[in-house]
Design a protein that fits this description.
The chain is mainly β and 392 residues long. The chain has one domain: TolB, C-terminal domain (Neuraminidase), CATH 2.120.10.30. It is built from two helices and 30 strands. The chain has an eight-stranded mixed beta sheet with strand order 3-30-29-28-4-5-6-7, with no helix packed on it. Strands 1-21-20-19-18 form a five-stranded mixed beta sheet, with helices on one face. A hairpin with a 5-residue loop joins strand 29 and strand 30. The two termini are 38 Å apart.
Length: 392
């Protein structure tokens, strides 16, 4: 046991990383703090993509289904639309994710035009910021993540693989016209060939629940990587060696027969996971792109499943989020039919510092200095913005 740990430590040194000391208290099965009785904003939305606060406490919210950017005063219950659809200097074509801009403002990622629309701390719009990177816009995710992420230092971040059968891809930091750095290698979902041809076209299928590494970028340029195997969080600073977090204990979650049949039916938002057709297209940034076919009812025996669920839950585009303290919130995989959401919260050393449970039907969408924001879907499929106290 000691011998094996020594080999791992030596490998970490060879990779130029500082490994955090073993932490026997990193218990990913400890009881979470349960959040209850949230306040709700009076207006309703079709899809709440993201929420980010301005310095005065007002919230920027994007609704990609309605293609709207809203400015909310939560205590007063006021909502104001920001900007308009178009291709002009203070307009947007497709509002998507939100990123912290210098000075406390917010950048809205325009997924269609591949540029950033700045919302100033005053709530006013500024002329767009051209990205100059990212290729063609494809299908846009309602809940995230975006195919590009941004810090407030002027860098874009992209995770890129070059083949549909690749089991890893590169996490890139891009300064357009200056440099592109490879920060890490990320494990991706395992793909199986169904009837692929020699030229690469054909049908492929994801091994459902295969472990995948997830990542998020902080405004100060720190990149958090939630590793699937072993489960831990690594931090990559803007300069210098990465910090490798301690492994977090978790019990594998069994994939029940009922869940397999539910997925095979095409229900539950398993968009694009049952089969994938590789289309021989080349984007501006190079490399092939894949387009998922709509989910169709399939017999369970025709699907591939991992032996168990990984610790990190990326179902329904539920990607890790960073709070205003720079901590990473990673959603955990849970047994089928368990409707609450459980998050592991990691500090900048990769230590598990808290576990938090959101009630049934609440989806995490953002933070400010004092509050956790979530979206609740009602019986008519409209979404309501909730907030819970961040501090216990």
């Amino acid at each position: 046991m000691i011998r094996g740990w020594g080999r791992a430590a030596c490998l970490g040194l060879l990779l130029g990383c500082h490994a955090a000391p073993p932490d026997p208290t990193a218990d990913g099965e400890a009881a979470p703090r349960r959040l209850r009785d949230p306040a709700e904003f009076p207006a309703v939305f079709t899809v709440i993509r993201a929420v980010m606060a301005l310095p005065d406490g007002r919230l920027v919210l994007t609704d990609p289904a309605e293609n709207r950017i809203s400015l909310l005063d939560f205590p007063k219950g006021n909502v104001t639309l920001v900007g308009r659809v178009g291709e002009g200097p203070r307009e947007y074509q497709r509002a998507s994710g939100l990123y912290r801009a210098p000075g406390g403002g917010v950048w809205v990622f325009d997924h269609e035009l591949r540029r950033l629309l700045p919302v100033l701390p005053s709530g006013e719009l500024q002329d767009v910021v051209q990205i100059g990177y990212g290729g063609l816009a494809g299908s846009w995710p309602e809940h995230g993540p975006d195919d590009l992420s941004f810090d407030s230092l002027g860098y874009a971040y992209d995770a890129r693989g070059w083949g549909v059968m690749d089991t890893t891809k590169s996490l890139l930091r891009i300064r357009v016209g200056r440099s592109t750095d490879t920060l890490a290698r990320l494990h991706t979902a395992v793909m199986k060939s169904v009837n692929a041809r020699r030229n690469g076209t054909g049908n492929y299928q994801t091994v459902l629940f295969s472990p995948v590494d997830a990542w998020a970028v902080a405004p100060d340029g720190y990149v958090a990587v939630a590793r699937a195997n072993p489960y831990r969080v690594d931090w990559i600073p803007p300069a210098g060696a990465a910090v490798i977090g301690p492994a977090v204990f978790h019990r594998p979650v069994r994939i029940s027969q009922a869940e397999k049949e539910f997925i095979a039916s095409g229900a539950g938002g398993w968009r694009g996971l049952t089969s994938v057709t590789l289309v021989k297209l080349t984007s501006r940034s190079g490399g092939p792109s894949s387009r998922p076919t709509p989910p169709e009812p399939l017999p369970v025996k025709s699907l591939w499943f991992a032996k168990s669920k990984p610790a990190v839950n990326l179902r329904d585009d539920r990607w890790p989020l960073l709070d205003e303290q720079g901590r990473l919130w990673v959603q955990r995989s849970l047994p089928f039919r368990m409707k609450v959401s459980v998050f592991d919260v990691f500090d900048r050393r990769g230590h598990l510092v808290e576990r938090v449970e959101l009630p049934e039907g609440s989806r995490l969408v953002g933070f400010d200095q004092s509050w956790i924001y979530a979206a609740r879907k009602d019986a008519d499929d409209f979404e309501h913005l909730q907030r819970f106290p961040l501090a216990p």
